[in-house]
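Example record for the data management plan.
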Amino acid sequence: MARQEIPNDIEATLGIVPEFMEGMADMISEHTWSFLKDFLMIDTALSAKTKALIGIGSASTLRCDYWVPFLAGLAQLGGASDEEIAEAITVASGVARDSVYLNGIAYDQATFMGELAQVAEHVQSGDEHCQSQRLGSSVISLQI
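Corresponding structural encoding:
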């Protein structure tokens, strides 16, 4: 799409051209709009709703006051419930918290990967406790 066509396409799609997009360099504007329209806001291998939920988690971790409400709205347009949005944020906060911990204590990655392999083997073994906790059906495959 030619640079001069982008504002018209944005307005046709969103109803307005946000001011921040008007000030972007041409290359950035083209990439940003293509990312939004041709990837984020449509179903691909992941649904637009799923991508928005992943994005909400990422944006929340980054504490981005701009992307969180945009992605929450996009997720809601895709049918996400408030509970799904809250879970996406909870997953992201847990990943961020535990990543800070593991990196902070400089946990040996080889040890971690070995332990992860042991967990995967146990969960996939069909252990009765794992089945009662639904781990067997949730953890399809942990390939290391």
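Summary line stored alongside the record: The mean pLDDT is 87.
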